[in-house]
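Long-time lurker. I teach an intro course on protein structure, and each term I like to show students one example going from raw sequence to a predicted 3D structure in token notation. This year I'd like something fresh instead of my usual example. Would anyone be willing to generate the tokens for the chain below so I can use it in lecture? Attribution to the forum is fine with me.
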Amino acid sequence: MIPRHLSSALKAAARDFPVVTVTGPRQSGKTTLVRAAFPRHQYVSLEDPDARSFATEDPRGFLDRFKGKVILDEVQRTPDLFSYIQGIVDATDRPGQFVLSGPQNFLLLHRVSQSLAGRCAVLRLLPFARSELIGRPVRDLGPWLRRRGAATSTHDEGSERLFETLFAGGYPRIHDKGLKPQAWLANYYQTYLERDVRDLLNVGDLEGFGRFIRLCAGRSGHLLNVSSLATDAGVSHSTARRWLSLLEAGYIIHLLRPHHRNFNKRLVKSPKLYFIDTGLLCYLLRIRRSEDLVSHAARGAIFETWVVSEALKSFHHRGAESDLYFWRDARGREIDLLLDEGAEQIPVEIKSGQTIAGDFFADLDYWRGLAGRPEGPAALVHGGNDSFRRRGTSVLSWMEWA
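-- Reply from a regular --
Happy to contribute to a lecture. Here you go:
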């Protein structure tokens, strides 16, 4: 088993809260993680028809079976259990008594917030970060970028390694079993449509929803225009918004919000759309080989998606809330990624190419000038092998970023 960064935050939460919930996309490794983190807990999967029937028909009797601590997997399938769990933890209040896991969806979060508010820690497990695959500790990006200074490094891996990384994505089974990404992702995508979209989320038009997802894939790394997306998908504006919410709740996409700091200028208010996993994104874009990314029109957007996704994982896998944004004014000046550290924001520019051109720094310099911190920390992440310092900016190889 490849160790997961979230394990530390998960064990810490179980020392402080009677209930810990681990959510995330299907097949992100939730069951493996919770069973490895709590080997002495009893384990029940509510995917099992007998267990689910017992929990549904007699929830009190079902929970009375467990005299010690217990892991309840796929708990979203028995929503009535949450109220009974609330009664038990109110009476006993033992740390780590219940560990719940299941795919993120509205029903699960609604029940947790409604029944277990103040009693439950909610953690999010996304597919593998690259740092997990290579055995590097998780980073708190803000302090790391401030400390980095003028450090330089060169990596030996060629650009083909980058394309393989983007193409494979991070779903654990692909890496654990050495599977061909496209074959596995095809089955994953179909299972997602059949189980989550139709059975759990009550979307009847699977064909239309599938078309909608592929249209979203073509917009990854771009500003979200819901009206345009709805028109292209042949659905109403309200349906498009609902389907986007479903995709975000299921951790298929992430909507990166614009930062509010305007320096007395007009700002873009629409979010940017990103897929969580670049392997799934490549599958939806019908990219069939990693070599195809070399000249693909979406290469820059896919690379930007990967950089944003890895940053998002660095927050969630430490048990922290994401403080990631982008910044864009009405004239098109843009910061691809902005880390909000409270008193300070760190701008990050993203370029998929290996050659660093002088104009890559223009928006970073412009933003730092507006912020009144022309020498403040900033980073440029690129698709090459070298990391160095240039024009007061940390130029980072993709291998250094994650």
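Some talking points for your students: The longest strand covers residues 334-340. The mean pLDDT is 91.
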